[in-house]
Design brief:
Oligomer: heterodimer
Strand content of chain A: 25-35%
Largest sheet of chain A: 9 strands, mixed
Order of helices and strands of chain B: HHEEEEEHEEE
Number of strands of chain A: 19
Structural class of chain B: alpha+beta
Helix content of chain A: 25-40%
Strand order of the largest sheet of chain B: 2-1-7-6
Shape of chain A: globular
Strand content of chain B: 35-45%
Order of helices and strands of chain A: HEEHHEHHHHEEHEEEEEEEEEEHEEEE
Structural class of chain A: alpha+beta
Chain lengths: 342, 126
């Protein structure tokens, strides 16, 4: 009899489920807060995953930091400062740089990886910008790109030809590259399901048990969720917004997403959210869509192969593509009405 | 059934009851299974780790980051950075945050404040 009682108890306990199936780790890396959420039952050691992630992000920062002494991209920028001809690119930088140039071309140069001088002029290259007025028109004219990235930045057989003094800054792609690399390595050690959230931009893979991952997109002008959606087996959700890095001067807000045409903060949208299987494409597309503004975001994203996106305009309207809208659950109070575009 | 009941000893019944109560307790927990339930809690992340502060008690707290002390203020269930050693002061300008999932950070000083979510979402994009 006791055997039957014990068997019944074990059966009931087995049916009850794990009360805490998710493991959360948080760390600072790449100048932002990083959160790794793993589903225990899907495999892998969450503590080993967090350690591997920390090492990976440190390695990527050492590769892609545009200004830090000793970083590979900073070294390339030093060489470009005086180079008259083509400069050899470190092998570790070639795949990412080639990808960045391809995305720049696809974006119609809304995303430009060679805007470093403008970024420095505005002071947004520093994580902690010192208070200062915006740059003068003359100073901006001196750093404004003279031609589209696809024409002035040319990679050929491992060497880059660029105007002397070009400063590469892949800031608009850094989190995407990190998410892509982090995802591959975490999967490589058997983490079967997780979410890697890099300062608000995330990639999710697998699923936590029988259900799917559900994430929220925060309202760009409020503390609360704007919409939520369930994610597939591998999907990245990246948002570019005017609230991430900014300063105010004489009542005008200046943010860090610069339009390559003007070297000024892009205007017209408050945020652009992109959902795509590739974190790098999602990252570059969110920036490019933001720069393209209300009139151009849809065609720019389409040219980059993105059909799932949502934007919030400066006057507060929320617009989603027809491919994404049916997946969105409105969470805001009062509920916003979604405008849908093809 | 009577025959089965007669063969159960008191200890068997205790085990069975404990199992049923245990299962019932776990079923009262939402499916998400995270720790984000109950009254709102403020989670403070610093380089030294994470800690919780009571959101229902007003007060000021000094938190130490690599740049120096940051002061956070709690009032009426909301929280804000009151003072910060960073140059940009974005964290102070962010102002009060309130509600589940709300977030504010001083990245230069590596301190972030998060009001614990209500368990409806696994992660938040912004």
């Amino acid at each position: 009899m006791r055997v039957w009682v014990l068997a019944l108890v074990l059966l009931l306990v087995a049916c009850s489920g794990d009360p805490a199936p998710l493991h959360r780790e948080r760390l600072y890396a790449m100048g932002t807060t990083v959160e790794l959420i793993t589903h225990r039952a899907s495999g892998g050691d969450p503590h080993a995953a967090a350690a591997l992630l920390g090492d990976t992000l440190a390695e990527l920062e050492q590769r892609w930091h545009p200004y830090r002494e000793g970083a590979l991209l900073a070294g390339l920028n030093q060489a470009l400062a005086t180079a008259e001809g083509a400069v050899t690119v470190h092998p570790e930088l070639r795949p990412g740089l080639t990808l960045a140039l391809g995305l720049a071309a696809a974006s119609g140069d809304r995303f430009d990886p060679g805007l470093g001088r403008a970024v420095q002029l505005w002071g947004f290259h520093e994580g902690d910008r010192a208070p200062a007025p915006p740059p003068s028109a003359e100073a901006l004219a001196a750093v404004r790109p003279t031609a589209p990235a696809a024409q002035r930045l040319l990679m050929d057989r491992g060497a880059l030809r660029a105007p002397t003094g070009t400063v590469l800054d892949l800031g608009a792609l850094a989190k995407g590259l990190a998410a892509e690399e982090g995802l591959q390595r975490l999967r490589g050690i058997g983490i079967g399901a997780g979410i890697l959230n890099l300062g608000g931009d995330l990639v999710a893979w697998g699923q936590p048990g029988e259900r799917r991952w559900r994430i929220a997109v925060r309202h760009p002008r409020a503390d609360s969720a704007l919409v939520s959606l369930e994610l597939g087996q591998q999907e990245a959700v990246f948002t570019s917004g005017d609230y991430e890095r900014w300063f105010e001067h004489e009542g005008v807000r200046y943010h860090h997403i610069l339009d390559p045409l003007t070297a000024m903060p892009a205007r017209g949208l408050t945020s652009v959210t992109v959902v795509h299987p590739s974190p790098t494409i999602a990252d570059a597309a969110a920036t490019a869509g933001f720069v393209a503004g209300e009139a151009g975001w849809r065609s720019t994203l389409a040219a980059m192969g993105v059909d799932q996106a949502m934007v919030v305009t400066e006057d507060g309207r929320v617009i989603a593509t027809a491919a994404l809208a049916p997946r969105l659950r409105v969470e805001s109070e009062p509920p916003v009405s979604l405008e849908v575009v093809p | 059934m009577n025959a089965v009941a007669h063969r159960l000893r008191p200890a068997d019944l205790i085990i069975l009851a404990a199992g049923i109560i245990g299962v019932a307790l776990t079923w009262t927990q939402p499916w998400a299974g995270s720790q984000d339930h109950g009254a709102p809690r403020l989670i403070v992340y610093t380089e030294g780790g994470q800690r919780e502060l009571p959101l229902d008690a007003d007060g000021r707290y000094t938190l130490l980051g690599p740049r120096g002390p940051s002061v956070v203020e709690l009032r009426d269930g909301a929280v804000r950075f009151l003072e910060s050693p960073c140059r940009g002061q974005l964290c102070v300008l962010r102002g009060w945050i309130a509600g589940a999932g709300a977030y504010s950070a001083c990245l230069p000083n590596r301190i972030s404040l998060e009001i614990a979510g209500d368990g409806r979402f696994d992660s938040i994009n912004h």
